Structure formats: structure tokens, C-alpha cells
């Protein structure tokens, strides 16, 4: 009897999740496939980006000399966040351009180029600051920057996987 009750509750719970997923997908067609992040408003995403940048800044515990090197890094991070928001909107528009496959590919190539340029600017802006960080600050930076990477991306400023011994 107890097993049947548990199985019934589990089935009801799964049914509820399916219905909830359907409700989300009606309001936000990308919500069911892309997780909770896509269900957030642009204002929510901007607030989370601000919070992540502030957390990284606070977690680094910069000294006075390092603090002077922070503004260009923050600017580059904000620029990259803004570019991501703009590209997300452009991707939604491209999804409607089913008839123009070459145009979609060109738009995707342009987006990748812009993303690469923004990443290069962030790398250039962070190089002077990174050179002054001690090992503890570098470790904290790698951990705190992890949520800023889209889809898991590269692993920290070191650019290596810790699991595979840094190879």
C-alpha cells in the first residue's frame, strides 16, 4: 500500500511538472527547452549580471593599487553582458527568418565575430589586473567568474580544466 501511495504521488508530481512546463512554454516558447534563465525578463537578467560583477569585485578583495585597474574590467564585462542581451534578441528574430538560411548563417557569423571582439576586449582589459592578483585572488576569480560563462564555457582565467590536470 505504501509503495502504491508513493508511486501515485510521484506520478502526480510528474504530471504537475509536465503541465507547468506546458504553461511556461505558452508564455515563453524557449522556457521549456532552455531552462529558467530564458524565463527571466531583460531587467532580471541585467540585475543578475550586475550582481555577478559585484560579487566578483567583492570576492577579489582588491588592494588600492589593484582597485585602480578594476574599472576597465568592469566596463568590458558590462559591454559583454549587453552584447549577449542584444544577441539573444537578434537570435529570436533570426528564428523567424526560416526562409533565408544564408542570411541566418551570416547573422550568426557576425554575432560570433562580435562576441570574439568583446571577449578580446575583456581579455585585454583584465590582463593588467590579473598580473597583480595573488594566487588566492586568482582562485576566487576562477570560481566567482564561473556563472558568467555561457553554457559552461572555458574554466576560469586559467583557461584549463582542473579535472584533467590542466591539459
If you had to describe this structure to a student in words, what would you say it looks like?
The protein is mainly alpha-helical and 167 residues long. The chain has helices spanning 2-27, 31-34, 42-60, 64-67, 70-94, 101-132, 135-145. It is elongated. The protein folds into 2 domains: 1-39; 40-152.
Give a quick summary of the entry.
It is built from seven helices and no strands.
The number of E-state strands comes to 0
- Proportion of beta-strand residues: under 5%
Structural class label: mainly alpha
Low-confidence stretches: 5-26, 28-33, 151-167
Provide the domain count.
2
Major sheet size, sense and barrel closure: none
Distance between the termini: 54 Å
Order of helices and strands: HHHHHHH
Count of alpha and pi helical runs: 7
Report Rg: 21 Å
- The averaged pLDDT comes out at 75
Tell me the helix content. Answer: over 70%
Shape type: elongated
Amino acid at each position: 500500500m505504501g509503495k502504491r501511495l508513493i508511486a501515485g504521488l510521484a506520478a502526480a508530481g510528474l504530471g504537475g511538472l509536465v503541465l507547468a512546463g506546458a504553461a511556461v512554454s505558452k508564455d515563453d516558447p524557449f522556457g521549456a527547452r532552455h531552462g529558467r534563465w530564458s524565463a527571466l525578463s531583460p531587467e532580471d537578467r541585467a540585475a543578475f549580471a550586475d550582481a555577478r560583477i559585484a560579487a566578483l569585485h567583492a570576492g577579489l578583495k582588491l588592494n588600492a593599487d589593484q582597485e585602480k585597474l578594476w574599472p576597465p574590467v568592469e566596463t568590458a564585462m558590462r559591454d559583454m553582458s549587453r552584447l549577449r542581451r542584444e544577441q539573444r534578441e537578434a537570435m529570436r528574430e533570426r528564428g523567424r527568418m526560416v526562409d533565408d538560411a544564408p542570411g541566418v548563417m551570416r547573422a550568426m557569423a557576425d554575432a560570433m565575430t562580435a562576441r570574439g571582439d568583446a571577449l578580446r576586449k575583456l581579455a585585454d582589459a583584465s590582463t593588467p589586473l590579473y598580473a597583480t592578483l595573488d594566487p588566492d585572488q586568482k582562485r576566487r576569480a576562477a570560481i566567482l567568474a564561473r556563472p558568467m560563462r555561457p553554457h559552461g564555457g572555458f574554466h576560469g582565467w586559467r583557461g584549463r580544466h582542473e579535472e584533467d590536470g590542466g591539459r
